[in-house]
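User: My advisor, Dr. K., asked me to get a structural model of this assembly before our group meeting. I'm new to this, so sorry if the format is off. These are the inputs:
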Amino acid sequence: MQPGHFPANILFILIFVAANGFFVFTAYKLYRILRLGKPEDRFDRRSERLKSVVTFVLGQRRVIREPAGWGHFFIFWGFVIISIGSLETFGVGIYHGFAYWKFLGKGLTSLLYLLQDLFCAAVVVALCVALYRRFVVKPERLRYEDQKAVNQDACIIIGLILLLIVLLFGARAAEYLLAQGEAGRYFPRLAFVSVAFSSLFTGLTKEGLQAWYSFCWWGHTVVILGFLIYIPFSKHLHLLGAIPNVFFRRLSSVGELSKMDLEDETAETYGVSRIEEFSWKQLLDLYACTECGRCSDNCPATLTGKPLSPKLTIHHLKEHLQAKGKMVLAQQGAEEAATANPEGELARALIGDICQHDELWSCTTCGNCIENCPVFIEHIDKYVDMRRYLVLMESNFSPEVQNVMRNWETNSNPWGLGFATRGDWAKGLPVKTLAEDSQVEYLYYVGCAGSFDERAKKISSALVTLLNEAGVSFGILGAEEKCCGETARRLGNEYLFQSMATELVEIINSYGVKKIITACPHGYNCLKNEYPQFGANWEVYHHSEFLATLLKGGQLQPQQGMDKNLVFHDSCYLGRYNDLYEEPRTVLNSILGLKFSEMDRSRNKAFCCGAGGGRMWMEETLGDQKINDARTGQALQLEPDIIGVSCPFCTTMFEDGLKTFDMDEKVKVYDIAEILAQAVTSAKE
Amino acid sequence: MAQGVCVITEFREGKFRRVSFEIASEGRKLADALGEPLLAVALGEGVEAVASDLGGYGVEKVIVVDDALLKDYRAETYVPVVAEILQNLSPKVILTAASVDGKDLSARLAARLGAGLATDCTELQIEGGGLKAKRPMYAGKAFAWCEWSDGAWPQVASCRPNVMDCLAPDTSKKAEVEKVEVALPAGNLTQVVSIEKDAGGKLDLTEAEVIVSGGRGMKGPENFAMLEELAGILGGTVGASRSAVDSGWRPHADQVGQTGKVVTPNLYVACGISGAIQHLAGMSSSKYIVAVNKDPEAPIFSKADYGIVGDLFEFLPAFIEEVKTLKSTC
Amino acid sequence: MNIVVLVKQVPDTETKIKIGADGKSIDTSEVKWIINPYDEYAVEAALRLQDSVGASVTILSMGPERTVESIRTALAMGADTGVLVDDQATEGSDALGKAKVLAAALKSLEFDLVFCGHRAVDDDENQVGIMVAELAGIPHLGLAISVEVADGKVTIQRPIEGAKVTMEATLPALVTFGGAHAVWNPRYASLPGIMKAKKKPLETKMLADLGLSAADVGNEAVKVSVTSMELPSERQAGRVLEGDTAEKARELTRLLREEAKVI
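Assistant: The format is fine. Below is the predicted structure of the whole assembly, which you can bring to the meeting.
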C-alpha cells in the first residue's frame, strides 16, 4: 500500500474524509452545546481581539509566565510546524509525487524541514519533561479527584504525540534514503535529525525502505487523524476552545461585572442555576480549560483549605456541560427526562450537585484565577452569577449576609450605622461638603469604611491633610454620600446594587462632578468600571495614583524620613483589577529612609487579604487557616515594622491577622496616605 | 365624679411583687398632691391575708378578690373583675405595673373603660388636678410627657419596675380591707402549658438586659470565669468579641458583632475589647456601655459612657466586690 | 386558616432623634422608614405558618401613603394581601383610637389569628395590640418567640428569666411577638417576590369604610397625648473615670446605680 498510489490514495482519501467528517460532526455538536448558552456580545473591537490572539496564542505570553509553560511553548509551536508538515504528508497521500520543494524551491524547503526537525525534537524533550512533572514531581495543581482518568487522558495525548513524531522521523528517514538514488525525488540534508534517524535503516534494500516508509507514513497519518478524533473528548479540547476564547476574551476591566436586566418583565429567573443559563462565552471558557491548575495554585481560598478550587469548578462544569448538553440536544422535554431519571445528568442541580454552596461563597473575587489563566477563563463571573441566583431567587445566604444587606438597604452602609452620621468624621477638619461649596475640581468619595470605621477615619483625615497640603480643590458629600454598593453586587444582590448605584449616580451628577478621588479600591473599581453602566461619566482616581501624581508634580514634598522596614501589600482591586502596581510604590519610595521589601506573592500574584467579594462580612469558619492570617504570615516572614496597604479592608484584615500572631504591638498597619501625611506634615511641626 | 388614686397590685406565689409597693408609694404621692384617697385592688389566691400590709405604703383601702382561680394572671378572669371594681370605685388615676402581666391588664382595662393609658412611665406628677406622665420613647432616645384630655377619667398609667422610689413601709399602718365576692368567669381561653428551665441556665445574648463581654485582653479562656461571676451578679450573660471567639476561648454563639449577634442590652460591659467597628456594629445600640481596657486609645472608649483605663485584672475583682456589696444592701 | 398581621411603619432604629418644631413629636425630615422590627417578626411567624399549614396572610396597617411601601415589603416577603387604612382623620389618634381603627378593620376580614409586634419601636407603648384583642374580644398571648397552631389552638413560647413558658390559647386569638432579629431571622424578599408584590391586592380604606367616624378616633377622641418631648441629657461618651482602682470601682458602681439606673 504505497502512499499516494492507487488504490492506497483512495483508501487514504476515505479515511481522511471519515476522520475529518467525524471531527467536524463532534465539533459541530460542541458548537451546538455552546449555543445553548445565553447571548453575549463579544464581537466588538475585532482588531484588538486579533492582536490578543497573536500575543497570547502565537506568542503564548501568559503560558510562558511560568517555567513549565516553556514546555507548552515548544509543544504548541512543534504542533504548528508539524501541522505544516502534515499538509505535505496528506498531499502525498493523494498523489505520491506531491512535495513542497516543487513549489517552494529547495532552499526554503530545507529551512522548513530543519525547523520541523528542531521543533519535533524539542517537543519530544518537552513531553518527557511533562511526563516527569506529572508522574514524578506531581505538583499540587495537577491534582484532580478523578486523577486516574485525568492521568490516563494525559498519557494518551502524550503517547499519541510521541508516537506520531517517532513515526514521522521514521518516514522521513526512509524517505531520505529513498530520495538518494532516485531522480525527481528530493530530501533536504539540512533536516539533520531525520538524516540521523536514517542510520537505523542502513543496509536495507529499496523495497525494505519502501515498506518502512509506507508503514511509518500510514502510522503517522492514522495517529494524526486519530488524534483529531480524540481531541474533542479529551482535555485537548482546549485546542479548539482556547484560541476562540482568547479572541473573545473580556477586553473591558476584569472588575466590571455584567449588568443584569432587571426591567425585563418576561424574565422567569435571575442569575444562573442551570448550566445553559451561562452565556455562550462562559461555556466556551469550559472548552478552553487546559487543566493546568494555575488558577488554583494562586487561589487564596484553595491555598487555605476552603472547599473552593477554581480549576475543579471549571472541570466539573465542563463535564456537566458535555454530559447534560448532549442530552438536552438529543431530547425534547428535558424536564420530563429529569423526573424520569432522577439519577441522570439532567437531574443534577448546578448549585448543590455540580457546584457546592460553600464553594460559591468562598470566593474573595481576588482575580488571581483570571490573572493566571493562560486562556483567559473568567471564573469570578460564574461564581457571582450563581450567587445572583441564590440571592435573587432563593434568598439563600447566611444570616450575616442578610444582616449586611439590610444594613445597606436602611442605612446605606454595611454596619447599619445611622446614615445621617455619615459625614460626622469630617467635623472639625478643613473640608467642605459639596452642598456648602460645589465649585471644586474633585469630589473626594470617602466610602463606608472611611466614613464610619474609627480606624479608616484616620486614613480619611490623612488624605484630607495631603489634599489640602497640595492645594487640591476638593469637597465631600458628607451625610449625602451613599455606599457604592460594590460588595452587594459581588454578593450577588444585583437588585440592591442597581438601586444603590442609580441613587449615588444621581447625587453625584446633581453637583456636576467630573473628577473623583477615593481611598477605597473597591469603591474605586466600582465607580470607575461599573458605574458607567448607570450613566456615570467621571474620571476616577484612587488616592495612590493621585498622590503619586502630586509627588511627581512637586505639589507634595515629603521632608521627614522614616527609618523603618515596610512590606507592601497590593490590593487586589487596585492591582489585578486596575493595573495600579507602581503608583503606591511611588508614594512609598518618596519617603526617605523607608526600606521596603516585597513578598513572594506580590503585584499581579499578590495574595488576597481575604476581605473581597463580600467575605469581609462573612464568618470564615472553613478551611485550615484564615486567609488574612495566611497573608499576614507571609508579610511577617520579612520582619517588617510596618505593613503598608492602600485599602481600608486590607487594613482591617491585617490588623486582625497581627492579633492572631500576637504581633499587633510590634508591627503596625498603615495606609500609604497615612505614611505620606506623616512625612509631609511632621517636618512642619 | 371621679375621685382618688387606685393602684392595681400584682400578687404571685403568696406575696406582693416589689413593684406593687413601688406603685403604692407613687400612688401615695399622687393622692397627696390631689388631696384624695389612695385605694388599691388586690387579686390573687391567698391575697386577703396580707392585703392590709399595703397600708404600710400609704394605701387606705384595699378591694380584695381572693380566689384559687386568680392564682395566675389570665385576662379572661382578671380583666372583667378589675374593670367592674374600678367602675364602681371610679378613681381619677389608676396605676399598674408595667410588667408583662401588668401591660396586658392595663391595655385591656383602658380599652374596656375607654380610658387613656400611658405605659412604662418613669415619672408621674399631678398638674392642674390631673396626671402628667413621663415615659421613654424611641428605645430611650427621647422622653415624652403625656397629659390626659379634659374630663378623660380615669387616667391610667403603668409604671416601669425598679424606677420609682419605694417608701420604707410603716408596718404600724394597716389598710382597710374590703373583700368582694364576684362570680368569676370560668374562662379557659388561655393557659400556661409548661415552664421549662433553660438548659445550662445561660440566657441568650439577644434576650439579656446585661451583657459582660470579653475580648483578647482577657488573655485566656480561664479568665472568663471573672466575667461569668460579674454577669451572674448583674443577672446578665457573657458575650465575646470575634478575636476571643477566633482564639477558641468562647463558642461562636457568644460572639457579639457584625458577623455575630447584634445586641441591645441596657448595660454592656466590654472588658479587654478594643472596639473594632465589626464589634461596635453589634453592640453600639446598648443603652449604657462600660469599657475596661488598658489602651487609652482603644476606639471602644469613644462609644463608652463610662471608661476605665487600666488593668482589667485589677479592676474587675474590685468592681465585682462593689457590686456584691450594693446588691446585698438593696 | 387566615392570619392578619398588624404592621406599623416606624423610623429606622438608627435614626438620630431630633425633636420637631412642635416640641411634641420628632423631626421626620431625615427618617428612613422601616417595618417595626417586632411586626416584622410577626410577619415572619405568619409566613412560617403559611409554609407549614397553608395559612393565608393579610397585612393590615394604618398610616399615610408612605405606609404602602412597608406593606409591599411584607407582601414581597410572601404575604398574600394588604389592607391600609389611610385617612387624614386618624391622625393624632392615641393608642386606643388606633386600636379601634384596627379592630374595626379586622371585622371586615376573616381571621383565625392576629399577629403583631409586642410594641412598636417608635412610641414603645406596648398597648395597641392588646387593646385590639380586648376590642375584638379574643385572647392574647404576649412576647412570643415561637408559635405553633394545631387543633384550634395556638401555642407560643415566651421567655422569662432563666426559663421558657409555653402557653396556649383558643382560636381566634391575638399573639404579640417579642424576641430579636437573631431569634426570628425574618426572610429576605426574593426578586420574584418583590415583582409579585407589586401585583398583589392592596386595598386602601377610609374610616367610613370601617363604619367609624372622625369623632370615634383621631384628635377628637384622644384621651391621652404627648404634650412635650425632651431628649435625655447629652451623654458624654468617652468619659473616663479617674482615681485608683478601688475608687474607680466604687464610682462606676455608683454611676450605674444612680445615673444610668441599670443595676
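One thing worth pointing out at the meeting: The longest helix of chain B spans residues 312-329.

User: Perfect, thanks a lot.
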